[in-house]
Amino acid sequence: MTRKGFLGVTGISAAVLAARKLRSVFAASGPAASPPVRWAMVIDTQKCLKKAGCIDCIAACHKVHNVPEIKDRAHEIKWVWKEPFKQAFPAQETAYTEEAYKGKPFPVLCNHCDNPPCVRVCPTKATWKREDGLVMMDWHRCIGCRYCMAACPYGSRSFNWVDPRPHLRRIDIEFPTRTKGVVEKCTFCAERLARGQAPACVQACKEQKALVFGNLADPDSDVSRLVRSRFTLRRKPGLGTNPEVYYIIG
Amino acid sequence: MRDRPLILGGLIVFLALVTFPVWYNAAAGTSSRPPQLKLPAGQKECVAPVAFMKTSHMQLLIDWREGAVRNNVRTFTAYNGKTYNVSLTNTCLDCHGVQARAGQADFCGRCHDYAGVTPKCWNCHNDRPRN
Question: Which residue of B has its CA nearest to A193?
């Protein structure tokens, strides 16, 4: 065999081996394809505002998650709460919105952003984005540095400055309370989703149907149909966080 | 032998000091015997054999925590094929969580007190009221 022939055979053999290896790697990495899930919420504010003063969603959420009621605003904890139009949609404000929405606050909660700034800054990965879009909290891992609170442009996170237990009127034993020194927020009811139930706020708003929850990755879901057929707003979209809570205003 | 009272007195003081921990524990009602645990009423088995739970329940709890919180794995298949909900609050403490005092379940607390460890699980996870 000539030198040239030997090098040729070696080169071709190496290429064939590499191709085989590559194929096996790609074949192994293909998991059983499960349909994609992207949890999202649509809030129909017209339906919500119809029932003035209603706080069913807030009460239901705070009850099942043992969210304490602390009067001191510096210590307050909130998962779902209400904001006036100006605070909820600062970029959409006109000279007339204040009058138009006077006394009509909008329900707000964690937006479970596609690009969550809280996750980027968390030094311990106590908060992270799940594949189905939920921005989760691991209270075991939270060290209470509050970077996430500084990063969140929606004020969705609260810090436990004091032990929350004395401030709970009733403890739901099925859900853990938090301890002093951790940050908490809405988790889109991860524990209820795991059981195939809708989030507690959505369940509480069954009559008004102002809160719609579902899989945005499924084109036939209620949320998908709503965001495709109605004009929706998201909170502070200019910040690039890509919130996944949509508001139907008109 | 003029030193006899001194020697005897010294011996008595020495013995009293050496045996002090025994008297102290006897007076305080504590003992060096392992605590007698009251098993949950109406339950025959745990999620793993007793010997394993005695030595490694903390590791199991950490695995459960990582599974449920971070990987959304909420079902645990036990050694005997039974399946359990992965939840300290709703599975473990449902059986073991009867409260002895604020902040620690009776079943868990007896051993933790004996071993001198103070895990912080109960800062958040709710035990069950006595009745």
Answer: B72
The pLDDT value given to residue A133: 94
pLDDT at B2: 84
- Chain B residue with the nearest C-alpha to that of A65: B124
What pTM did the predictor assign? 0.80
Could you tell me if residue B3 is inside a domain? yes
Tokens representing residue B122 in the block: 């109960």
Which residues from chain A sit within 8 angstroms of residue B69, using beta carbons?
Answer: 136, 138, 140
A80-119: string of b/e by CB count within 10 Å (b at 16+)? Answer: bbbebbeebbeeeeeeeeeeebeeebbbbbbbbbeebbbb
Q: Which residue of B69, B88, B91 is the best one to mutate when testing the A interface, meaning the one whose CB has the most A CBs within 10 A? A: B69
B10 falls within a domain: yes
Whether CATH 3.40.1000.20 fits A39-248: no
3-state secondary structure of A77: coil
Q: Which of A245, A209, A249, A234 is nearest to A40 (CA)?
A: A245
ipTM of the complex: 0.79
Number of domains in chain B: 1
User: Where do we find the tokens 């040729």?
Assistant: A8
User: A48-78: per-residue pLDDT in tens?
Assistant: 999 888 999 999 999 999 999 999 999 999 9
* Minimal C-alpha gap between A174 and chain B (Å): 6
Across chain A, which distance is largest between two alpha carbons, in Å?
Answer: 92
Interchain CB distance below 8 Å, B124 and A178: yes
pLDDT value of residue B112: 87
Mutate to test the interface with A, among B71, B72, B85, B90 (most CBs of A within 10 A): B72
